[in-house]
Design brief:
The complex is a heterodimer of chains A (230) and B (222). Chain A is α+β, with helices and mostly antiparallel strands. Chain A has 2 domains: 6-78, Glutaredoxin (3-Layer(aba) Sandwich); 90-210, Glutathione S-transferase Yfyf (Class Pi), Chain A, domain 2. In chain A, 57% of the residues lie in helices and 7% in strands. Chain A has helices spanning 15-26, 43-48, 68-78, 90-116, 120-145, 158-164, 167-177, 188-198, 210-229, and strands at residues 6-10, 32-35, 57-60, 63-66. Chain A has a 4-stranded mixed beta sheet with strand order 2-1-3-4, with helices on one face. Chain B has 2 domains: 5-77, Glutaredoxin (3-Layer(aba) Sandwich), CATH 3.40.30.10; 88-210, Glutathione S-transferase Yfyf (Class Pi), Chain A, domain 2 (Up-down Bundle), CATH 1.20.1050. Chain B has helices spanning 14-25, 42-47, 67-77, 88-114, 117-138, 151-155, 157-170, 181-192, 194-197, 203-211; strands at 5-9, 31-34, 56-59, 62-65. In chain B, strands 2-1-3-4 form a 4-stranded mixed beta sheet, with helices on one face. The longest helix of chain B is centred in the middle third of the chain and has 27 residues, at 88-114. Chain B is globular, with a radius of gyration of 17 Å. Classes of the chains: A alpha+beta (230), B alpha+beta (222). The interface between A and B is medium-sized, with 21 and 23 residues. Chain A: Keywords: Cytoplasm, Detoxification, Transferase.
Chain lengths: 230, 222
């Protein structure tokens, strides 16, 4: 399929965009990456996602698909010849979807809460909540992975993509706050998984380096501060 | 012999209702287990340790949680009427609107109903914007799913039935036929659709349930 058939609107530091890039790489789909500029949404983005005006948007044969996990499922359902992303068993699919929803609804909001917490008390409270969730993730990895290397089992799957795309920002939080969220002693399953995921062919080069993300975060924080002072 | 199917829910909950509707559409027999959310059963906590919430579907002894996840599971497990469309692009569109309704609309509508003063004014404004979007999306179709009800219609149940009742309970006029003629027509089609009609909780009991509360139940997802 020609590269022009598939376009991806996004920005490289976005874990939501990274999900789609990884899924496309997994299926060996050529695509054109249209990088959006921060603070200025393109005409194409506004036209393709008028409801949310957000990235990622994948355009396939001139039809836009929005919301990262919806795009990943679409990719899996259209390109059936490559490796499968969602498990084949309905119960395993339900588990993958359940935990993917957990990333959005609970885990990532708590990670952001920790990063933005002001004062020791708020930080400690957020960290405690997050560490409890990391224990849940360790259990989920054992159950979903069934003793193999990924949440998807032997191969990278839906939940690996849904959660793994956030490893960049997880590492940013670890470095900036000098904490360990994934620990070889406390969460050995996750520790092994994180390394395997990040070095996978479909993932290499997608998630930006931690240093770059920290630099970007500092840039945003400065921009936000300047805006609020004007 | 078919494996038993159990559903942990609350009669007044739009979330467990979604699952019941899907099971009924597929002709699946199930046992409904009414939960008391002020005193959650050991089984509920065992089957949904992460969120401790209803609905939980139990099939072949294995629990599935989160109503949208359960709906997709039901569609994939049992043959019969399709809940999601066959075409991948149409499925993506259906999932998009279901997410929009579940995450944005319902939350804004719930807040608009139960908040007061300035907060309510702001919430009503936001809710109306979302309703306008849905009004446009309907494009005069009978259902969000087209000629027959589908995934989006099931997920939009709060707007389809609960909203009108809560509006009456709290004395709020949000979804009116003047402002949202398409949506009101859709509601009419919805509540008169045989499988929906046969499954709705009794209107007067639901009205009494919401009138009796000074505070809303613990938020949209209870």
């Amino acid at each position: 399929m020609a590269a022009s058939d598939v376009k991806l609107l996004g920005t490289s530091p976005s874990p939501y965009v990274n999900r789609v890039q990884i899924a496309l790489n997994l299926k060996s789909i050529e695509f054109e990456f249209l990088e959006e500029t921060f603070g200025a949404k393109s005409e194409l983005l506004l036209k393709s996602n008028p409801i949310h005006k957000k990235i990622p948007v994948m355009i396939h044969n001139d039809k836009p698909i929005c919301e990262s996990l919806i795009i990943v499922q679409y990719i899996d359902e259209v390109w059936t010849s490559g490796p499968t992303i969602l498990p084949s068993d309905p119960y395993d699919r339900a588990m993958a979807r359940f935990w993917a929803a957990f990333v959005e609804d609970k885990w990532y909001p708590t990670l952001k809460e920790l990063r933005m917490a002001e004062g020791e008390e708020a930080k400690t409270a957020a960290l405690e909540k997050l560490m409890e969730m990391m224990t849940l993730w360790e259990d989920a990895f054992a159950k979903c992975g069934k003793g193999k290397g990924f949440f998807g089992g032997e191969c990278i799957g839906y939940l690996d993509i849904a959660f793994g795309s956030f490893l960049g920002w997880l590492k940013v939080t670890e470095e900036m706050l000098e904490i360990k969220l994934i620990d070889e002693a406390k969460t050995p399953g996750l520790a092994g998984w994180a390394e395997r995921f990040c070095s996978h062919e479909a993932v290499k080069g997608v998630i930006p380096e931690t240093e770059k993300l920290i630099e970007l975060l500092k840039k945003f924080q400065a921009m936000a501060k300047a805006q609020s002072q004007n | 012999m078919a494996e038993p199917v159990k559903l942990f829910g609350v009669w007044a909950s739009p979330f467990s209702w979604r699952v019941e509707t899907a099971l009924k559409l597929k002709g699946v027999k199930y046992e409904f287990i009414e939960e008391d959310l002020t005193n959650k059963s050991d089984l509920l906590v065992k089957y949904n340790p992460v969120h401790k919430k209803i609905p939980v579907l139990l099939h072949k002894g294995k629990p599935i949680c989160e109503s949208l996840v359960i709906l997709e599971y039901i569609d994939e497990t049992w043959k019969g009427i399709s809940i999601l469309p066959e075409d991948p692009y149409e499925r993506a569109i259906a999932r998009f609107w279901a997410k929009f309704i579940d995450e944005k609309c319902n939350h804004a509508l719930w807040t608009a109903c139960w908040s007061k003063d300035n907060e309510q004014e702001k919430a009503i404004e936001e809710a109306c914007e979302f309703l306008k979007t849905l009004e446009t999306q309907l494009k005069g179709n009978k259902f969000f799913g087209g000629e027959t009800i589908g995934f989006v219609d099931i997920v939009a149940n709060f707007i389809g039935f609960w909203l009108g009742i809560i509006q009456e309970a709290v004395g709020l006029e949000l979804l009116t036929v003047e402002k949202f003629p398409n949506l009101c027509k859709w509601i009419d089609n919805y509540v008169n659709c045989p499988v929906i009609k046969a499954n709705l909780p009794p209107r007067d009991e639901l009205l009494a349930y919401f009138k009796a509360r000074q505070q809303p139940p613990t938020g949209p997802k209870y």
